[in-house]
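Intended use. Records like the one below are meant for learning the mapping from a protein sequence to its folded structure. Do not use them to infer anything beyond what is encoded.
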Amino acid sequence: PFVSWENREFAPKFGSSYEYLAIVFTILAILNSIGWLIWVVWHYSDLATINGTPVLLILSLIGTIIFYCSNFMNMPNAFYTYSCYLQPWFSNIGFVMFYSPLVAKICLIHYITFKTKKVITTLPQAVKVNVKMALFIFSIP
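Structure written out for the chain above:
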């Protein structure tokens, strides 16, 4: 029983059932986020969407799509070459783009609740600055 060169070579094979299952769930989650993104853009001028600050909704949905794409990088047999480099970038940028609008919405709710008694249809300057600060703080590794 001599060892041949083919036995020493690493040749990853794609096709385990867990990888297929992960790809199916990731694609379904991405399609769900794209569907909600289309819905927000389609109903951009509706009162319910305006009250939900559509810019922050769109930013959150784009962040979830990027974060879901990082699941493809966890499959070394499918995307082997650059997956080690891309996976942290996709997951961190997606998380920052998803989480920063949530922080901005909390700041907006705090501003509306405690600082003013009128209805606000655009983002105040303080909330815009908080979004920029949150994007900067969460992007620091």
